[in-house]
Amino acid sequence: MNMSFRxxxxxxxDSLIRFxxxxxxxxxxxxxxxxxxxxxxxxxxxxxxxENRSFWVVDDGAAVGLVRLMDLGDAxxxxxxxxxxxxxxxxxxxxxxAWLTRYLFEEFPDVRRIEGTxxxxxxxxxxxxxxxxxxxxxxxxxxxxxxxxxxxxxxxxAVLRRDWLSGEVTAPQWNDEPCE
Length: 180
What we know:
27% of the residues lie in helices and 31% in strands. It is α+β, with helices and mostly antiparallel strands and 180 residues long.
């Protein structure tokens, strides 16, 4: 792999629409994006605005994925990652999450933590979170609708700046329910 990340610009609108409409995104709420929806997302600033930045994931000169960073004015930004089907399972996700984590902590000094959420059955993304130093912090029952009408559990992960700096992962304190 020879990966790099290139920020999306206004001139990328057509390429972005083609990318979004050319694949199925099985672990996204909208798994099949039509051209009209993709165009609307681009126009409304979902990928590039004051609160959002997006980057092509480039491997050997070809765009193989898309990283979208959201809530950049907040101390806890979120991200979305989309990889082409042909490039899943090659380690691209782990490289992308490691890159975006470093980028957010280095570019935004007020960021304390970075969050990401995925469906419970997206085992590959869950492994990426753990591999990249993110801790499981939440399990949301029946929280993720799919285009087929099913509802899935969602799982939330986050990395703290202090954990990223130390290379240690601190687990949430799960057994803190008040006694009756």
